């Protein structure tokens, strides 16, 4: 079995095809996932990596906005085309399209910036959360369940994810609030490369992003006929980050309607620094009988 963290690093080690038209072309592998669909965080992180390969090394990504256009096939590699839209004195803009079989599965635009000085403030880290060492791992919660999805989530993820106060894999416990939080950390050490850590954070940001919507309506992931899919994803990196150290990822959902839900999230380092913000809209479809009040 391939080590999950090695699998992530392999997925982010894109190959430069050498093709040059008006765009730079890269290719990357797809990680296996139960159900056969490419994990959205993977193609986000690969698109960030592809765009980063076309900028100067010191100019790092600070924001990206992407749309998921089609589900990806884990049995096919992915081609990434990067359009060098603009290079200014301090900022660069890139557009990345991810393709399989000639069709786009993700379209992303990203901005990169040279290190700079300026005003500095951030929203404080919420208080009252238990330490990650005091919480069960996903393997603790799901490892005993004989189901391919449960086993994949328990053993095949490159990140250790610990829910606060409890996960919603099998049931939703406690008050139905439109909030969710996880402690998250890579399962091993990563190289000292700021761009790699930022791409890996994009990878991790898609894991639990829509769970604040599900928790609000009492819907665990195991709900029969529940259909959830990411539609778009926006991310802002505020400060340097290491994903091989514990990060608190707090999420909330301000709205859900029309078969869609909006979720917003913030990543905090363990010492309380706000390192990144995320927003995502997702498709959330439930059987008509559950659309009003959840599952009780």
Automatic annotation (TrEMBL):
GO MF annotation: an example: fatty acyl-CoA hydrolase activity
Q: Which Pfam families match?
A: 4HBT_3, Acyl_CoA_thio
What is this protein's record name? Acyl-CoA thioesterase 2
List, for all copies, the residue spans of the domain called Acyl-CoA thioesterase 2 C-terminal: 166-283
According to its UniProt entry, this protein's organism is Mycetocola miduiensis
Which BP terms does GO give this entry? acyl-CoA metabolic process; fatty acid catabolic process
Which InterPro entries does the entry mention? Acyl-CoA_hotdog (IPR042171), Acyl_CoA_thio (IPR003703), HotDog_dom_sf (IPR029069), TesB_ACOT8-like_N (IPR049449), TesB_C (IPR025652)
| Annotated catalysed reactions | a fatty acyl-CoA + H2O = a fatty acid + CoA + H(+)
User: Could you tell me the keywords of this UniProt record?
Assistant: Hydrolase, Lipid metabolism
What family does this belong to? Belongs to the C/M/P thioester hydrolase family.
User: Quaternary state and partners of this protein?
Assistant: Homotetramer.
- Which residues belong to any copy of the Acyl-CoA thioesterase-like N-terminal HotDog domain? 29-113
